[in-house]
From TrEMBL:
Source organism superkingdom: Bacteria
Protein name: Uncharacterized protein
Length: 114
């Protein structure tokens, strides 16, 4: 990783950790709060992707694509019947999305020497 890419990737690692936090703390949250973390992680990736080039950009773009299913779940019932293609996730899907963010955060931490 070139020095210019190291700082945005390092900041992304810090922001990803803040987005999902420790697993134990997430289990007690309401569904809407649980979806907030992985969705925030996608925003973190988008910002970091705009600031890096080459292989780090490819990595962050691939991670964004892999995490994009977190945009399909909804946490609230579709009262009027319109759900715009969203689905209600199973409880384990929240944990899977959060774990994926933690794995990416761990990888970026190792790559940047944080």
């Amino acid at each position: 990783m070139i020095p210019a890419d190291r700082e945005p990737a390092r900041q992304a690692a810090v922001d990803l950790a803040a987005a999902v936090g420790p697993a134990e703390a997430r289990y007690a949250l309401e569904p809407i709060a649980r979806l907030e973390g992985p969705r925030e992680a996608l925003a973190v990736l988008a910002l970091a992707l705009a600031r890096v080039h080459g292989r780090p950009a490819w990595l962050l773009a691939a991670a964004s694509t892999a995490l994009s299913p977190v945009l399909h779940p909804r946490a609230l019932p579709a009262d009027n019947g319109y759900a715009f293609g969203t689905v209600e996730p199973r409880p384990e899907q929240y944990a899977e999305a959060e774990d994926a963010v933690r794995l990416l955060q761990n990888l970026l931490t190792r790559l940047t020497g944080l």
